[in-house]
Amino acid sequence: MKTRILLLIAALLTSQFELHAQKAGTITIDKLRQLPAGASDIKGYLGGKMDMCMQNGIMNRAYSLYVKPFEHRNDDPNKWQGEFWGKWFTSAALAHHYQPSNIHRKIIDDATAAMIRTQDHAGKLSSYDKDFGDWDIWGRKYAILGLVAHFDETGNKASLEAAARSVDNLIAILGPGKRKITETGLSLLEALSSSSVLEPVVLVYRRTGEKRYLDFAKYMVKLWSEPNAYTQTGMRLVENGLAGTDPMLISSPKGYEQMSCYEGLCELFRATGDSTYLKAVIRFANAVRKKEIMVVGSGSSGELWCDGAMRQTEMLEQTMETCVTATWIKLCHQLLRLTGDPIWVDEMEISIYNALLGAMTSDGSWWAYFSPLTGERVPSHMQVPSCQTSCCVANGPRALMTIPSWAVMTDEEGAVINVYETGTWNIPLKNGRQVTLKQATSYPEENKINLTVTSPGDQKIRLRLRVPSWSRTFNLTINGIPVQGKISRGYLAVDRIWKDGDRVEISLDLRGRVIKAPGNPNQMAIMRGPIVLALDSRIANADDRNLWLLHEGYQWKHDKAWNIDYALLKPVSSFPDQMYIELKRVPSPTGIHMAFEVPFLHRPTHFVKHEKTMLTMCDYASAGNKYETSNAFRVWLPQPLYMRTAYPDEAWRSLYQREDKRPGIPLLPTGSK
């Protein structure tokens, strides 16, 4: 009964928003849509990570610290305290949507009321006393995003009114004939941070139907194409997106802020239906995939795009900012909703299991600022002591809490399964009835997924099951009977009348895969499903050997005259981009999620005494998770790998060169007081 009531309330809130949008002619229906509040209950590995993040992180934060900069308007020109409330709140709203409860509701209600009280009579909602501080508009963006999220979760009109008044204030200072938004914020970012306010402006338009907000959004995008005081060419985000321009060459190469602007274009497409905006985002995102995203699903060096796909085997400084990871996941989520293309699920899955969870501490209370592919885990420094947080600590949870929004979705014909994880999903149908899907699996540890359909009566729906791009096989049975289906656009669709208790079993291909580095074929990494493996100094200690991965690129030969077996390497140039390697699952040491024995070849001489040896590797997210200098790890394996130098010393200095000492995980105040 409680679940049905929550689903009804969520449906009423959704229909209220859509009624506003349809009245103004602003709605472009997504191809895939998220489930109502409380409809998902995710268990297993991902569910446990989200629970820890909510309990020890999101809902345990002293959010009153994030309100104070708005109360006092005490941000100096180079400060960015205004971003923290909105970042934290949007993750809290996602947490409430996933697990609605009186406790969660009180937290988001109290936090919203506290923020609204800081708004002045002119509608200004800012952490700056004077307009146009370096991060002024950026902070306002996050405040508006938080207010809109509160309205979407609760239907509280006061939150939407406060958001609308804040946008009105922006129009008053940045509208036509006023200061150009493309000439605000840090000049070295060429106004990317300020311009990303496009997203909440369009969201306010879609919820109010007030045309002035759409006009302002279009005006801002028009300014992107015009020369300004910061750049003679203009930002040209739409034009360069359409052209598939290298992300490093688009405006300022600050990855996080750049992607945030393209998130705004996604919303503008929903508001206008102008396919130019969607095409620009898709081509931009594909350029990011090709040029910048590293093997674990993130990118950047020093927070900037860096040609990362080609350079990821190097010891880059300050690799993979968690804000970049989070925003890449959020952009992929947008594109999944708009296109229905599961390629964006593939991207999010790799990012979540590797880069994102690798950046979160084991208890979910804190995050890393940067995540190297070789070196050691280092917790984020206390970037803004007065707020007791950093940009990445505030941003990581936003990406993690998107999982319930895309794990299982709906389309016009039924349900779409994107994530394989133990849990229960209640799917509302067009006829007003409901079907429940229950998954039982230890994926990605094992390759079997069992799904049970629970229904009050026979239901004719289409169930679409995602076929991961890395899985060469996808075997399906229903009630024990093999089913052959056509895989289309990354999904296998099953149309049938589902009966209560119908059982679906899926089997995926979880063989180990050896991946060649795009920039260096002699550097290799290992993936198993979406999981990237890493050497960890706790379980693969340094020794004096030089080792080669023993994969399909080797041929074992026997010489009768000498009566010896030896391994002959095929030409590296003939290797496919992906080869298979035999992995053996072994019990996981303390603190490690998954561990595997991986075969290596030791060849101390040219032909004789070649021997197979096994090293234990673990999942990337577990590698180095002691957050100590003594706990080093590496992903890319040069061929040969000299074990004596496998782990660099004091690698934390490549992440925090200006610090006198290594940052530690801080003791934090908790609760709202």
Précis, in short:
The chain has 673 residues and is an alpha+beta fold.
What does this structure look like?
- The protein is an alpha+beta fold and 673 residues long.
- Among the domains are: 410-443 and 447-508, Sandwich (Immunoglobulin-like); 512-654, no CATH class.
- 35% of the residues lie in helices and 20% in strands.
- It has 18 helices and 26 strands.
- The strands form four sheets. Strands 2, 14, 15, 16, 17, 20, 21, 22, 23, 24, 25 and 26 form a twelve-stranded antiparallel sheet that branches. A seven-stranded antiparallel sheet has the order 1-5-6-7-13-9-10.
- A hairpin with a 4-residue loop joins strand 18 and strand 19.
- Helix 4 (83-98) packs parallel to helix 6 (136-154), helix 6 (136-154) runs parallel beside helix 9 (198-208) and helix 13 (275-291) packs across helix 15.
- The chain is globular.
- The two termini are 35 Å apart.
